TrEMBL record:
<dbReference type="GO" id="GO:0015205">
    <property type="term" value="F:nucleobase transmembrane transporter activity"/>
</dbReference>
<keyword id="KW-0812">Transmembrane</keyword>
<comment type="similarity">
    <text>Belongs to the purine-cytosine permease (2.A.39) family.</text>
</comment>
<dbReference type="GO" id="GO:0005886">
    <property type="term" value="C:plasma membrane"/>
</dbReference>
<feature type="transmembrane region" description="Helical">
    <location>
        <begin position="401"/>
        <end position="420"/>
    </location>
</feature>
<dbReference type="InterPro" id="IPR001248">
    <property type="entry name" value="Pur-cyt_permease"/>
</dbReference>
<feature type="transmembrane region" description="Helical">
    <location>
        <begin position="371"/>
        <end position="389"/>
    </location>
</feature>
<feature type="transmembrane region" description="Helical">
    <location>
        <begin position="328"/>
        <end position="350"/>
    </location>
</feature>
<feature type="transmembrane region" description="Helical">
    <location>
        <begin position="240"/>
        <end position="262"/>
    </location>
</feature>
<feature type="transmembrane region" description="Helical">
    <location>
        <begin position="202"/>
        <end position="220"/>
    </location>
</feature>
<keyword id="KW-0472">Membrane</keyword>
<protein>
    <submittedName>
        <fullName>NCS1 family nucleobase:cation symporter-1</fullName>
    </submittedName>
</protein>
<feature type="transmembrane region" description="Helical">
    <location>
        <begin position="131"/>
        <end position="153"/>
    </location>
</feature>
<feature type="transmembrane region" description="Helical">
    <location>
        <begin position="445"/>
        <end position="466"/>
    </location>
</feature>
<feature type="transmembrane region" description="Helical">
    <location>
        <begin position="61"/>
        <end position="91"/>
    </location>
</feature>
<keyword id="KW-1133">Transmembrane helix</keyword>
<dbReference type="InterPro" id="IPR045225">
    <property type="entry name" value="Uracil/uridine/allantoin_perm"/>
</dbReference>
């Protein structure tokens, strides 16, 4: 980024980083957390560590293991993994560029396509999704502490029984673990992005060390002959059935990353250069996820021999329950704590930081980044995520319906930046309410973007409600494609008087070039 011009004032150091605010920025669109960064300091390793933290969680572990239980050959799973994660890598590079160039988070970037006021629509949608997942991930991590407590103090077992000592569907022991996790995450978040960066820089490699040690221990105990890359229990698929399952696996990989992929701009804004971001994405996505998945299947497969299966005869894919059953107290304690820390990492980077920016974008003068994060944290308790997680039907309709809208939001953002705006951003106009500015549209709202989200969401939501599980796995692709096409058609052929108050498209002067903005932007 180029140096700030003389008509700027440097904001005080905020929790989200030191930013630059020009005198003309509208107060209802600006605070020190949303404004362009004064300096972008993250290297490729910081981005790599971000993705390590995003992948290393109980949910990521179970997801990776489930891909090897689809009934297709191991090589087919690996091909699906590679293809899926390469698609994610490409899409993350696309969504990263506007935020890295302008130095602003995702909700501010969406002002380019939705308008300075309309950007609250994608911000609120993404924020609500993050709140639900934040609660669920916190609950899953808290289970680890409950198991650890019972391992050392078996007398606490009655307090872990929700029927004997429970409140709102969670036992007293469960509440203790949940509150502990809630406080630990809030502490890390409250100390700001620099602390979060240091936390994930350490946690990513540290979790790998323990995971490799755990896998090695189980493989030695089980014997290499008992390690299989096929975790399915039924007969294997062949022919066209295996091909369709491979395609489904690819779609599942992309859908799994759709949340952090959409708001990756919240982190790419800190990248020194776009090249650094791309390098971090390469190591953090294709390389990291493939290695992680192979490590998971080895651990789960060997674990089935060493610790056995669950009461229903199924292979245990939850790492917390795997380490809890290991007949080695030190290994069990280390494993449980590691996966708890790993879950804290993904929760902060995927479900704490992003809604903090999202909610701050709604009312910048009243909601700071810290306040936005705490709104998300409190909301995660109010939804009682343990009840939601234990009701598959409720979580299916709630999350899949919200998730079906993520695709259109992504498609609109990408088509607008690359095809409509030709990679040009007028940074000052992102913070201006003045009519005739680049992103004023109609009183701050772009009607084409709003219509595109509604129209493009109909098909994926209908598949969530009435479609099969196979069809539902493609809802993100449906939404992204539909959103991109409808938005492009609207912006290309709709009368300018329908889109802009002035009846004509304002010129955008700032040009993205070589990973930096031209001097006219800042």
């Amino acid at each position: 980024m180029s140096a700030p011009s003389a008509d700027t004032v440097t904001a005080h150091e905020s929790a989200a980083g030191e930013s630059v605010i020009k005198l003309g920025y509208h107060q209802n669109l600006t605070n020190s957390d949303l404004a362009p960064l004064k300096a972008q300091k993250w290297t490729w390793y910081n981005i790599f560590a971000f993705w390590m933290s995003d992948v290393h969680s109980v949910g990521g572990y179970v997801f990776a293991g489930s891909l090897f239980a689809l009934g297709i050959a191991a090589w087919q799973v690996l091909v699906a993994l590679v293809v899926g994660i390469v698609i994610v890598n490409v899409l993350c590079n696309l969504v990263a560029k506007p935020s890295q160039l302008a130095g602003v988070p995702y909700p501010v970037t969406t002002r380019v396509s939705f308008g300075v006021k309309g950007a609250n629509i994608p911000a609120i949608i993404r924020g609500c999704i993050a709140v639900v997942w934040y609660g669920i991930q916190t609950y899953l991590a808290s289970v680890a502490f409950g198991l650890l407590a019972l391992k050392f103090w078996p007398g606490l077992e009655p307090w872990g029984d929700v029927d004997q000592h429970g409140f709102l569907g969670l036992s007293i022991l469960g509440w203790a673990g949940f509150i502990l996790m809630w406080i630990l995450q809030a502490f890390v978040f409250w100390n700001g992005m620099d602390t979060i960066r240091k936390f994930i820089d350490f946690c990513g490699p540290a979790v790998y060390v323990v995971m490799i040690a755990l896998a090695a221990y189980l493989i030695v105990e089980a014997g290499w002959d008992n390690v299989s890359f096929d975790l399915s229990t039924g007969p294997g698929l062949s022919g066209w059935s295996s091909v369709t399952q491979m395609i489904s696996a690819i779609a599942l990989v992309v859908s799994y990353f759709s949340g952090p992929m959409l708001n990756f701009g919240d982190f790419s804004r800190y990248g020194k250069t776009f090249s650094e971001v791309k390098k971090g994405n390469f190591w953090g996505l294709p390389v990291n996820f493939l290695f992680f998945s192979i490590l998971v299947v080895c651990t789960v497969s060997a674990g089935a021999t060493v610790i056995g299966r669950d009461d229903d005869g199924n292979i245990i894919t939850d790492p917390v329950h795997i380490v809890d059953r290991i007949d080695n107290t030190t290994a069990a304690v280390l494993g449980v704590l590691t996966f708890a820390i790993a879950t804290i990492g993904i929760n902060i980077v995927a479900n704490f930081v992003s809604p903090a920016f999202d909610f701050s974008n709604v009312a910048p003068t009243k909601i700071s980044w810290r306040t936005g994060g705490m709104i998300a944290a409190v909301g995660s308790v109010l939804i009682t995520p343990w009840n939601l997680f234990n009701n598959p039907t409720a979580i299916h309709y709630t999350m899949d319906t919200l998730g079906a809208v993520i695709g259109p939001l992504f498609g609109i953002l990408i088509v607008d930046f690359y095809l409509i705006k030709k990679q040009k951003i007028e940074v000052d106009d992102l913070f201006s309410m003045d009519p005739g500015k680049s992103y004023s549209y109609r009183n701050g709202w772009n009607p084409v973007a709003i219509i595109s989200v509604v129209v493009a969401s109909i098909l994926p939501i209908s598949f969530v409600i009435w479609g099969t599980a196979y069809q539902a796995s493609f809802t993100w692709f449906m939404g992204a494609a539909a959103g991109a096409v409808v938005y492009w058609l609207g912006m290309t052929f709709a009368p300018k008087s329908f889109i802009y108050d002035t009846g004509e498209e304002p010129p955008v002067l700032s040009t993205a070039k070589d990973g930096k903005l031209e001097p006219s932007a800042l």
